Model the fold of this input.
Amino acid sequence: MDEKISLDNVGKNKIIIKKMIELSVLWMTGGLFYFYLEIAFRNYSHYSMIICGGFCFVIVGTIGKYILEKESNILKAVALIMFFGALVITTLELFTGIIVNLKLNMGVWDYSSMKYNVYGQICLTYTMIWSLLSLLCVFVANTIENIFFK
Done:
């Protein structure tokens, strides 16, 4: 009986380790993708964007995967992914901006000059961009999971 419990624990530990590796790969993929995307469009980025981008990628990818599994209407699924993706990314961007820009005064970004901004950390324009980027996140995250972790 003790051997069975021990073997069950080994199996559970392997599953946990595999999931931790998968999440780490997805987090680094999303973080580095966003970091270099910023460099491509703004000519600079900041390491905090790797952290925030990684979390956004994992969360949006997970939500998107769930939506695709549950929703049979593809247009509704796309709309839900865009909505929840924009909500997640904008929320994480706000929290990151409050910490990095307002509390630590690092000046990584400032949307103060843009319409419909909140504390200069989020704005409607970028929320719309995040909704589109969410679709790419879900596609890339699912592709990585299917190729490397299935």
Observations:
- The radius of gyration is 18 Å.
- The chain has a mean pLDDT of 94.
- Residues 2-148 form one domain.
- The CA atoms of residues 7 and 13 lie 10 Å apart.
